[in-house]
Amino acid sequence: xxxxxxxxxxxxxxxxxxxxxxxxxxxxxxxxxSRMQALTGKCLYRLERSHGFRVLFAVRIxxxxxxxxxxxxxxxxxxxxxxxxxxxxxx
Length: 91
Fold this sequence. Notes:
This protein is α+β, with helices and mostly antiparallel strands and 91 residues long.
């Protein structure tokens, strides 16, 4: 078991998820997946200001104290960003 504090203080390449003390590898995708992610991000980026959200990629999101997920992409209302996202360790 890995403590959440250690997970948050460690940088993984590629990043992994943290679920109940276990580190889970993420599928980093392939060319088609990556391309779709880029196109989706471009479309969503254009809507950020008018809809009051931010588009983020591969950022650690705290689900609860023992669960951090790293989605391919996320849209989050700007007012929720500070409380929902975990800081990465310094590189």
